[in-house]
Amino acid sequence: MKARGKSLGLEAAYQVLENSRTRHTALVERMYEPARLFTGPWLCKTYTAACERTRELMAEAKIPRQRLETIVQAMRDPLKQERFRHLLSAEGLAAVPKTLAQRINAEQPVQTPCPPAEPKPLISGISSEVLDLLQDWYTPPQVFASLRRMLPERQFKAARLMIALNRANFHYAQLLSTLTPASQLTDPSRPKRKFADVTAEQLAEMEIEFEALNDEFLRCASLCGTWALELMTARCYLDRLMENARVVRYLAQNFPDELAKLQTILDIPMGREALAGLAKRTGRRRKHLVF
After folding, report:
1. Which residues pair with 24 in a beta bridge?
2. Which pTM value belongs to this model?
3. CA 245 – CA 252 distance, rounded (Å)
4. What's the pLDDT band for 154 if we cut at 50, 70, 90?
5. In 3D, which of 224, 153, 141, 145 has the Cα closest to residue 178?
6. Is-contact 54 214, C-beta < 8 A?
7. What would the pLDDT profile of 71-111 be if each residue is shown by its tens digit?
8. Which helix (H) or strand (E) holds 7?
9. SS3 content of the chain, % helix, strand, coil (to 5)
């Protein structure tokens, strides 16, 4: 490993890596609020842009789930017929993927609750989990100044949002701080800041809408990988179905609409080809989600 043109031994290289992992710990010592804070128009502009970006990325994250739902709806009625199930057994296609079968039967997956994490000491008012989460991101010290106004749980949620939206900057952190409910602030008795051209009722509505939107976005962010894997498994099974002439003939004669839906799903390319097609249709470059 080299640092500033010099070769380093293993011990020195390890020390450099350790220092890079903890660089934000040093930054929090220089936290300060900039002199320029949000004005009413700037708050509304930043809020609108953040909501638009969140909705766009959330819609992109939901694409695998929507295609899964299309497959489930198309497969549910045929699988209710015993004759079709016998045909699948005769053709060696009776083993429907478990996750797809659960969705078809409207079963809820079993979720093991996570044990509550033990609270860790704060570093200059910042949660150590937040520092670990942001260790690979360039984060201006002003961001930590906004995070310090929140409780540790809210800090962690804010850090997840900044990473997922690629918005680890002060403007977004200040927006999160401004629209944080009083119960999640370190000083809930501190009066809410007033903005010109923004009434207290409008600010309260923005706070509620922003909270609901971010909760739904983080939920989609945590599940989009699972949805993508389930979709890949379901498509592999559909490929086998569509390669079987007897199955296709049965569906064409008895369930033509469902067959058309399944063929539509298989006609959609997977992976980068699908993203490239989406970017071509929308006329702008799409960014991958980062979670």
Report:
1. none
2. 0.74
3. 10
4. very high
5. 145
6. yes
7. 999 999 999 999 999 999 999 999 999 999 999 988 765 55
8. strand 6-7
9. 65, 5, 30
Task: Tell me how far apart the 2 most distant CA atoms of the chain are, in Å.
Answer: 74
Per-residue model confidence (pLDDT) at position 9: 53
In sequence order, what are the beta bridge partners of 17? Answer: none
DSSP conformational letter for 105: T
pLDDT digits 0-9 by tens, 227-270? 999 999 999 999 999 999 999 999 999 999 999 999 999 998 87
Residue 283 or 131, more confident: 131
- The neighbouring-strand residues paired with 198 are 195
**Residues 165 and 57 sit within 8 Å (Cβ to Cβ):** yes
φ/ψ of residue 183, rounded to 5: -70, -15
- Position 196 scores a pLDDT of 83
Q: What is the CA radius of gyration of the chain?
A: 25
In the block, residue with structure tokens 């500033």: 4
Tokens (6 digits) for 19: 């220092």
CA dist., res. 62 & res. 68, Å (int): 10
Token digits of residue 116: 């509550």
Provide the pLDDT for residue 14.
45
Report residue 23 as tokens: 């660089």
Decide if 53 contacts 169 (C-beta within 8 A): no
Q: Which two tokens stand for residue 114?
A: 């996570």
* Alpha-carbon separation of residue 214 from 75, 101, 274 (angstroms): 33, 31, 26
